[in-house]
Amino acid sequence: MRRFNITLILCLMASFSVFAQKPIKDLKPTVILISLDGFRYDYLEKFKPKVLNELAKKGVRAKWMIPSFPTKTFPNHYTIATGLYPENHGIIENNIYDFGVVFGLDKRPEVQNSRWWLGEPIWVTAEKQNQRAASYFFPGTETAIQGIRPTYWKEYNGKSPNDLRVDTVLSWLDLPVEKRPTILTLYFSDIDDAGHEFSPDAEETRYAVLEVDDNLKRLVDGLKRRKIFGKANLIIVSDHGMAAVNRNNSIFLDDIFDIEKATERVLWTGEIVQIFPKVNQETKIITALKSQIKHATCWSKSEIPERYHYRSSPRIAPIICSADEGWVLTNHKRFDEWRERDELRGLRGSHGYDNTLESMRATFIAHGSSFKSNFVSEPLCKLLETKTANPSRRFPNIPSS
Question: How confident is the model at residue 21 (pLDDT cuts 50, 70, 90)?
Fold first, then answer.
């Protein structure tokens, strides 16, 4: 009997905490911008996440969204936030060379240094307009851009549990109206992580999609308990898609030219390589690349196709090489390291390729009081502005009610 009573009390306490949530009756127009890193546009049909499909069905969904070039995480997140092409907002790749140093995702002092971040992200615009912004992770929110950070923000920690991220966002909504943020960002990396390690078609990627869908259910349920689901505007995006890759499909740049002798610096990723030649070496390098390289395209900076909007930044290297889908740009040293780590067997996943490829297509879903219901949009381009970010056009071409 005592055990039953204790169990009953615990159940009643849990029920009270779930159902006794105080409704929010003074909600201002509010946007929750949610990033699902690496969520390819076709994962909705492929893996059938219930909550995401329900939001897409009852709200607005784009057939797909075209990412910016290069189809990398930091450039595309900051494009979403600013409405600018990477050549204009300065985050031209996940790795950037400027100021005599290299910016990289794992270089926290540089990520948090405002000198890299140009343009005006939406949270800065909100704060300028006497709104409060809050971010549980989003590239750019860790630094003071134009001297401004979100009122509430977190230093990135990939080990932070997703439920904690959701619950923290909900707790910010529980603040008194004068302290409550009206633009909030939330970021999940699980789907991108699984796609990279196991490939976009793997069971592990499906499980990652379904687990993040459960996290979104926690958010939706929290909004419902607060009586603001349908009032708060949810905008769910991804930064890029994912392509299946076998690292044995490698292109060895050190077979084409002497990297050590001919370059000051090379910034490597498998899909896009930035080459900074030594004095008087650029013509020799680009000539060798154009005549010998297969399964990739290399350009001098001035020759990069206009459709990429990837020329004007001084941070863009003098030579850019872009791999064909499913191929990897590398050198023998890096390839040998992959072999030692047993990373050459089977399929993996990559992004960073041509932004018009089907495998690179991203996702757009919106739900809330500012959006139509049961509406499917033609494909969206993330980009409208080229020189300045106009806050009134921050989310272009979104059908509203």
Answer: confident
